[in-house]
Design goal:
alpha/beta; Aldehyde Dehydrogenase, Chain A, domain 1; 2 domains; seven-stranded mixed beta sheet; six-stranded mixed beta sheet; 37% helix; globular
Amino acid sequence: MSDDLPRLGHWIGGKAVTDESATTGDVFDPATGAVAKQVALADADTVGQAVATARAAWDDGWRWSTLTQRAKVLFAFRELVTEHRDELARLIVAEHGKVLADATGEVQRGLEVVEFACGIPHLLKGGFSEQVSTGIDSYSIRQPLGVVAGITPFNFPAMVPMWMFPLAIACGNTFVLKPSEKDPSVGLRLAELWADAGLPDGVFNVVNGAREAVDALLTHPEVAAVSFVGSTPVAKHVFTTATEHGKRVQALGGAKNHMVVLPDADLDLAADAAVSAGYGSAGERCMAISAVVAVGDVADRLVPLIEQRIADLPVGPGTDPTSEMGPLVTGEHRDRVAGYLDVAVEDGATVVVDGRGMIASAGYEDGFWLGPCLVDHVEPGMRVHAEEIFGPVLSVLRVDTFDAAIDLINAMPFGNGTAVFTTDGGTARRFQAEIEVGMVGINVPIPVPMAYYSFGGWKDSLFGDTHMHGADGVHFYTRGKVVTSRWTDTSGLKLQFPTHE
């Protein structure tokens, strides 16, 4: 590997840490397939240094900072992220591969949580009950936990961390971020913006790394809570390990999101939704629609509409403004996703559109390309349906009735997101009531909640009892305390000699 490649380190105590002795990982440009940078992979000692720094920053004052002081820093950070939104988006494109419009939208959705956290003086209001007994009042308060950690995935290197750290910091905690080593630059740039916003040194720290860094955070005695987003197997590991070490945990796992299309639906709208939700960000979204459940004879009309739209979908480098879908994040991941097409055929499904034959534009032939793939006649139990693929592979399942569609989805181990397309309000209302999924869209394919609601699924899509951002986020990063007080009434104080009267 060339010694001329840029090398990324960490951010600890308000400054960049080079970590020259650490082992490194490659950071690719997915559009060209070339190694663009190297990133230092933190060991347990480096993680310990970051945690100790965060703990000192908490002890030395951030926990006692006023709500007004915190809000002031958050407002400044919001302005800086807004000012540098295009720069952050281009960093995402360079290391993840998604198109620029998608990356810009990611930063914007993260900003919405920052804006929500700016209201922390209101969000941390407690309750007060006067005269619960004679001369006694009772009230509740919420206090920060201490050092909290966030472990985030490659697919949203800006948005998912910003689901976590704005509220954690607003609530008075200090934070250690462990971003994906596949696209680490955005996390480091956000750390610089925090410093420019006036956040005290040590309140926000970034350690880049792989499994050793993750396990060090999960077991460190000074880490009070861990937030995680990633695959279900890793989410289970994070939840089990961290809870065994006495930590509060929210671990969001994988997904297999279904979109039910009923015979009365607007099929042009449904086809547009299936393509945008299935192939946006190359399908590398935990909220991507990866399975269309067509009820009755819908599939015979819907599949050709989806196929037509795929033919018109421009795939190319994220820096090209005409591209609507970019490459996958690594060659290894691309090959794994492409392998599902052979598996689907072996299991008896029909590949309608095979994206493996996509030819990239000149200069990008070695990028990690896989065009949109469409697989029809998929049955429950086939691997292409049962497993989270995390790529541009859209499956179509055919069922006879609406009840069968609900049963199919509810039988899945995942319960992250789902959608129904219909013009019947009663049917939609029944769907939202009976479906066993945490986030539901009605004629909306990707029902990601706004920042003032909370994000999270059910079943194997969430380990822990608290969702991210919104009111749940405030509760996760604080713990409640109830105070019962009585003050002696000295207004009747008398100095004369006491008597039994």
